[in-house]
Amino acid sequence: MSTSERHTYDVVVIGAGGAGLRAALEAHEQGARVAVVCKSLLGKAHTVMAEGGIAAAMGNVWPEDNWQTHFRDTMRGGKMLNQWQMARIHAEEAPARVWELEEWGAVFDRTPDGRILQRDFGGHRFARLAHVGDRTGLELIRTLQNRLISKRIDVFMECTVLRLLTVPGAADRPGAGRASDEPEALSAPARERSSARVAGRIAGAFAYWRESGTFVRFDAPAVVLATGGIGKSYQVTSNSWEYTGDGHALALWAGAALMDMEFVQFHPTGMVWPPSVKGILVTEGVRGDGGVLLNSEGRRFMFDYIPPVFAAETADSEEEADRWYTDKKTARRPPELLPRDEVARAINAEIKAGRGSPHGGVHLDIASRRDPEYIRRRLPSMYHQFTELADVDITREPMEVGPTCHYVMGGIKVDPSTAAATVPGLFAAGECAAGMHGSNRLGGNSLSDLLVFGRRAGLHAARYAQSLPAHKRAVADDAQIDATAAAALAPFAAALTPGSAQAGTASAEGTASSAGGTTSARDSAGTSVSPSHPPENPYQLQNDIQDVMQRLVGIIRTESELVRALKEIETLRSRARHVAVVGHRQYNPGWHLALDLGSLLTVAECITTAALARRESRGGHTRDDYPSADPAFATLNHVLRLRDGRLVLTTEPLPAMPPELAALFEDAGAESRADRGAPAGGKGS
Amino acid sequence: MAAYDLSLRVWRGDSDSGDLQDYTVGVEEGMVVLDALHRLQQTQAPDLAVRWNCKAGKCGSCSAEVNGRPRLTCMTRLNLFAPTDTVTVTPLRTFPVIRDLVTDVSYNYEKAAQVPAFAPGAPAGDDGHHRMKQSDVDRVQEFRTCIECFLCQTVCHVIRDHEENKPVFAGPRLMIRYAELEMHPLDTHDRRDLLRGRAGIGYCNITKCCTEVCPEHISITDNAIIPLKERVVDTAYDPITRLGNRILRRRR
Q1: Hey, are the CB atoms on B57 and A388 less than 8 Å from each other?
Q2: Judgement on whether residues A122 and A189 belong to the same structural domain of the protein
Q3: Hey, are the CB atoms on B56 and A280 less than 8 Å from each other?
């Protein structure tokens, strides 16, 4: 009923950031018919915001570097909760992915002998990040975008996917990503989860054009989710409006499993002033290039927060830390370059102790440590950003910074090698996939993750699709389409209360068709406007979701607050049933936001549920009531699924590492000094 | 600057019709034009169509014309104006309006699709990888800071009020794309004929409006368009080269 526009592809890639574009290119390379579907214009995805670089052990600056060291850094940064197979594949393949970008036109900064220059970053033992000033993400996305254009791959821009289409499981399902224990039937589905029908297999996706508000149906046996993160469920975030957890929610509703959702990375340095820019990212490159963190007393407080596990390889005096930038043989790393979770917690603690900067952050000072010319050359967009938005000249005065929600380590549970989710035909890569980063991601490992696993997702999605002959390809029944369309149009059925909207007129256009929907259609994502409940404003609801997550599920968590958060999310969910929008379907941001609320609520519940279950502190999950890491949780991942419309959490054991890799972690401290070839005269004790 | 009530005038409408509408929006210190538009959306005009993404000047989505000047609304501070000023926001004029401040920028993507892809030569390094000096890539990197906000395209008078030129002129954004490829140390294509023909470089008469509005401060005219013009002229119009070409062609 709802749509006349229909397309057929082998592989539909949802998301046009680094992972999505890389997946599409690879699937195309394999001969598959590919479409990219994205919420924004091509080239605007959140990847453009990545500043620091792409971590890859190319050894251009430090020939000593190798994949084993990168693997080890990644695992230790993730507090050993990473899927080791993913961390290994990532470390092994990242250099090839960077060189490939150069072959496709990327222009990285150079070493004196003309190779790709690599810079220092938190948690990486060697200078390892291939970069272009502080706009590496832009370079990456533009390179992939230009290649995509030259390959004439179809792109559906400003097109938002509402649901993945599925068909009931078939006996002859191909091997990739078998759903092991999905329930056979779901009854009485609740709210936005209702379309979590039995995990069969993927049959396509159903979307709407933002521009016209009309629906579009994609029939495809393989879907790659590359939708990025969940930052917009928090108030203070470095993420753009698109980061509403769509991929996480779409996967969960389609019957797939999520993993590690409690782990959310708060980047230590976001802008804090003025209020309208609060949360915008300040690259870790500032610290990599010599910047230091100071409290209101002018103290380099990071020396007070060096955890034992990193003590052996972290400088314990300012003299040694400063020497490290030029002398990596005998000096150890400055504590400002500890992994992000450590730095964010330290900043949080300083602010709480009353030693913060005037606007509730701490100072990040590079002005007094590097000359203006160097700063402008190495950090041009930071210079620009602070001059334009905060009237601060970073070559003359310190910046004010504080933690900002930046990245979610958790995501769709995937096979480490094929990027296949737990529903056949579904693949995921990049931020929306789980496992690679464990409980905390190292800076620079995101862009390399996108490339390595984006490529693998595209490769295996294409192979999967090609393994299904045309007559075996399932086509989703129209009921799914009709129910989703009806639910999507329901918010038009109510006008906002008088006074809250003057512009536009509430129009019932298109809503008549929703009347005949089934029960599940009304429940699914939908709005049931009742006269007894006032219509809800989508902007207010989003704001309230962000408020709950920021207040109760932020950097520091505790049981009572998490329990309260779950209750408040439930209240918000029932309020969201009455969301109403004004105007018509053509490019209507209020309506678009109303449709994003389902994903936001779903990921909020997932994060909170997993956070409540993990009674320890590790990486991007800190519990006030369980302040230290607990060995009992050290080998467990939390997995979330929908069963009978309810979110169910199970624990799964972490796969054991083979002995030759486990050996990399023995006596880490002593080894790290030995590796660097440090003379005994260094900081031996 | 404390909080105050901003007089905001926004163009509302679609491809058929539209006009400027007046609003009063409460604003505070540090806010940018995009913040004011968002507040308007949240409180008074929930269906106001605005395109935006990063809100940090990095993605180039939120371009509009503010008091007649093409700008990124996320990087335009309200303290640029007096609190008593009316701030008028209109959509990019060069592109067809979809709704309110959102325009159809597909022209730019069509022109981008006409650019032949990067074609590198064989790697120079004995490790199978390329070698390039930083000094050789500096100028290419300048062009690659482009965030595709299309402000240069909207301000360019060749296409701003001349729909008929769009088929024959690629616009400043694409000129720096051509320049980036032409000046790339590894690239082997020759795009000069294309520049003279389909991209229509001759239409540019170097008024430098594009350079003036570029939020990335790329010297579009001086560093990209003029050198490209010189290259095109050298091959297409230099009398000695032309003579040489004619003789060679005759021999062939």
Answers
A1: yes
A2: yes
A3: yes
A462 CB within 8 Å of a chain B CB: no
Distance CA A634, CA B141 (A): 45
Over the stretch A346-395, which tens digit does the pLDDT of each residue have? 999 999 999 999 999 999 999 999 999 999 988 988 998 999 899 999 99
Torsion sign, CA atoms A383, A385, A390, A391:
positive
Find, among A105, A110, A122, the residue nearest to A55 by Cα. A122
Interface check A598 vs B, CB under 8 A: no
Give the C-alpha separation, B244 to B239, whole Å. Answer: 9
Can you give the residue range of the structural domain that contains A633? 490-653
Number of Cβ within 10 Å of residue B83's Cβ equals 14
Percent of chain A with pLDDT over 70: 87
Q: List, for residues A155-187, the tens digit of each pLDDT value.
A: 999 999 999 999 987 543 443 333 333 333 333
pLDDT tens digits, A621-670: 999 999 999 999 999 999 999 999 999 999 999 999 999 999 999 855 44
Q: Which residues contact B33 (CB under 8 A, 6 or more apart)?
A: B64, B66, B71, B73, B74, B76, B78, B87, B89
A537 to chain B, any CB pair closer than 8 A? The answer is yes
Average pLDDT, whole number, for chain B?
Answer: 94
Write the ipTM.
0.94
Per-residue pLDDT tens digits for B100-132 = 999 999 999 999 999 999 999 999 999 999 999
- Residue in chain A lying closest to B121 (CA): A103
Contact B30 A388 (CB under 8 A): no
Taking one residue from A and the other from B, the number of pairs with CB-CB distance under 8 angstroms is 185
Query: Which chain B residues contact residue A115 at CB under 8 A?
Result: 125, 129, 131
The pLDDT score that the predictor gives to residue A585 is: 95
Does any domain span residue A677? no
Are A276 and A204 found together in one domain? Answer: no
Domain ranges, ordered by start, for chain B: 4-103, 106-241
Please say whether the beta carbons of A213 and A674 come within 8 A.
no
Question: Given A478, A499, A524, which residue is the final one in a domain?
Answer: A478
The verdict on B148 touching A (C-beta cutoff 8 Å) is: yes
Chain A hits for B117, Cβ within 8 Å: 105, 146-147, 150
Q: Which residue type, as a one-letter code, is found at position B201?
A: I
CATH class of B106-241: mainly alpha
Of A99, A543, A590, the CB nearest to B129: A99
Query: Which two tokens mark A408?
Result: 């979610």
Structure tokens at A627: 């302040």
**Which DSSP helix (H) or strand (E) runs through B9?**
strand B4-13
Which sequence positions of A are flagged as catalytic? 267, 287
Q: Among all residues of chain B, which has the CA nearest to that of A386?
A: B56
Average pLDDT of the segment spanning A617-621? 96
Tell me, yes or no, if A499 comes closer than 8 A to chain B by beta carbon. no
Choosing from A478, A510, A536, the residue where a domain stops is: A478
Judgement on whether residues A249 and A192 belong to the same structural domain of the protein: yes
Q: What are A230's two structure tokens? A: 């969940």
A114–B131 CB contact, under 8 Å: yes
Give the pLDDT of residue A680.
32
Q: Which residues of chain A neighbour B129 with C-beta distances below 8 Å?
A: 99, 102, 115-116
Q: Which residue of A has its CA nearest to B123?
A: A103
Q: Are the C-beta atoms of residues A464 and A72 closer than 8 Å to each other?
A: no
Q: Answer yes or no: do A382 and A414 share one domain.
A: no
Decide if A109 and B77 are in contact by the 8 Å CB cutoff: no
Of A132, A500, A587, which to mutate for an interface test with B (greatest number of B Cβ within 10 Å)? A587
A174 part of a folded domain: yes
Tell whether A196 and A338 lie within a shared domain. no
Do residues A419 and A281 both lie within one domain? no
A11 and A125, same domain (yes or no): yes
What was the pLDDT predicted at B29? Answer: 87
Backbone angles phi, psi at A131, to 5 degrees: -155, 165
Strand A215-219 to A5-8 pairing = parallel
Task: Return the CATH fold of B4-103.
Answer: Ubiquitin-like (UB roll) (3.10.20)
Least confidently predicted of A17-31, A291-305, A657-671:
A657-671
pLDDT of residue A494: 63
Q: Are A276 and B98 inside 8 Å of each other by CB?
A: no
> According to the model, what pLDDT value does residue B235 have?
81
